[in-house]
Amino acid sequence: MALDSSPSRLYQATFGPPIVMATAQHPPPPHDRRARLRSGVRGRAGGFTLIELLVVIAIIAILAGMLLPVLARAKKEAQRANCLSNLHQIGFTLAMYTADSQDCYPYSGNGWPEMPFVDLLKLYSPYIPNGTNRGAFFRCPADQGPGFNFQWVQQTGGAGLTTNQLPFANSYYYYFNFYNDDTGSRLQLRKTRDVTDPVRKAIAPCFASSPHGFYNIQLDTPTDSHGRDFMLLLFADGHAQSAKYIQLNPAPGPPAPGTVPTYNFDWTTGGLKGNDLR
Length: 278
Known about the structure:
Blueprint: H1 7-15, H2 30-44, H3 50-100, H4 114-124, H5 148-156, E1 202-205, E2 230-235, E3 240-244
Antiparallel strand pairs: 1-2, 2-3
């Protein structure tokens, strides 16, 4: 038998079989890795399920239901504080007027409704700063209509007044006894000394009204934008407060059967000698 004397056979006989080197494994190009990562992420986070979305919506609804009443109460409290500040400003205006008028309350010689709706604001005019916010503190932030005075004229006919006669929107009022005698039967110039108890005699209320109607002076009125439990009042001594109805004396005389008490301090028992705050 002939021997294979080829060089490769001779080499294997001498040094053993050839060593096969392993091929180096190179990493994939970067763009391939990013593609695989993106496909993996999409696979793991494909979106919320319907149940998860419903749970999230339910949680948001619960939180909104808890927060909205709190926010509404905070808004009401802020409006009340702003209104009391407005009443203080009107009190300062009144104090300046009486100081310049020999301690007399605003009086024009005209009766109701010209005096409280038109003439009063004209008499206050020298004490109201000029500018873009002129008379702004006469408009309560809780007033949801065009202003109590405009709303009253529009809805009642104005008893002879027109909206063109009103200087600007006003949410506040001036009580009858401060320009009439204590019986309310005739006009009279009144002085600060005529008020027996200025701490408890109201001179101006806030009549901020709802969109449904101007302020109603009955107990539990639905047209008071501040709520049904109290009135915001300026008193003759210059202080303003939020007074609950149980703290106030209703208008003279018992209410008729089937009616509710009214709090019209145009008709305080005793006039300026009487008290509206108990």
